[in-house]
Amino acid sequence: MIKSFTTLLCLLIFTSINAQTDEVVLKNIYSTSLTNGNSYNWLNHLSNQIGSRLSGSLGAERAVAYTKEELEKLGLDKVWLQPVMVPRWVRGAKEYAYIETVPGKTNTVNICALGGSVATPALGIKAHVVEVKNFEELATLGKANIEGKIVFYNRPMQADLIQTFEAYGGCVNQRYKGAVEASKYGAVGVIVRSMNLRLDDLPHTGSMTYDDIPVEKRIPAAAISTNDAEVLSTMLQLNNDIKLYFKQNCKQLADVQSYNVIGEITGSEFPNQYMVVGGHLDSWDLGDGSHDDGAGVVQSMEVLRLIKETGIKPKRSIRVVLFMNEENGLRGGNKYAEEAKKNNENHVFALESDAGGFTPRGFSFDCSDANYNQVLSWKSLFKPYLIDYFEKGGSGADVGPLKTKTNVLAGLRPDSQRYFDHHHASNDTFDAVNKRELELGAATMTSLVYLFDKYGVK
After folding, report:
1. Which fold has domain 28-89+254-455?
2. Which of 70, 326, 327, 352 is catalytic?
3. Regions of the chain where pLDDT drops below 70
4. pTM higher than 0.90 for the full model?
């Protein structure tokens, strides 16, 4: 009985010391990030000296070289480039559009080509407009009412959903598949309401698909700003005989070689167990990609810098992976997972930051109940930093291909209420990122990596 009591007492003391140590380590991580961080400086260069980083572009190429050089300066055990072939789509000259009420009387509206769209004919397209909210309405109208017209998808993001990514998911299919569906009924073009919760004049681009439609039968697709979507909808209600004109000059070129950028701290006890932290290096071309996903890139780089700066000696190998081509193909994420499988690498944990550089709220986890319960036991450690959102759910597009039955995938979840104001638009710029919020996110990611490395995956 005395022996059992002594064992229990020792266990309680050990647990208490461990908890105290974790509190001290996390405090040091946050303090270092907030007082001696480098994520904001990296983002400044990435955004203001390099700018947009669309896959296959010069900006993407320069970003690969810059981040590789910066990772090498950290004194990591390994830094390398992983080749990956990526698509090269170019926007060309700025798009132009107007609403015509009667011949000669026009109202200019703000549009931008969707990523992957074909161009309009050289002189543009002018046609009557059919407004729909979903594909079901499209089918109901049928070919007789759509052929030769421009389909206008005008389903807004659902404003009363607090989880804004849920609102985005509820309407993004009209952007991604809108041209495919409209083509079935003989439409000559597609205009899609921007995925944005606020009313403004900024069109938001994003990826779209033609599936297996032959090139010569593909129709051009563009996004229209939310303000102009409201105007167009109102004008159609007053007069459904109005026409829309738009012209865009985009082009799909041959694939080019690019790279994932990878850096590693080799584990001291389990070097063949890999933990990944990452974001995607590519961005759309309208802004400079500061929130999507420059923030995730520099936060992920900062995780490895903070580990070294605070003297943490990880048991497992920690990798930062800066993925290429998340926005219009996911080839970087798929390539990394393919090589990991080929090399028989055991990826026990992966964390992605791809939801902007706003104030961190917590994480979502794709994992077993045992691992999720372990995460919940750490909530008290994050409470002093106002991090209290821990939910089961998705992780990130780039780390998704790494999923196994036993590993843990996680996604950083910042406050998302302002994210879609900037997402894929020209105002996704460095000035929209708050230094302190960015640094808090980096520290939060580092803390989770530290805890999973220390206690392992269940």
Report:
1. Aminopeptidase (3.40.630)
2. 326
3. 1-20
4. yes
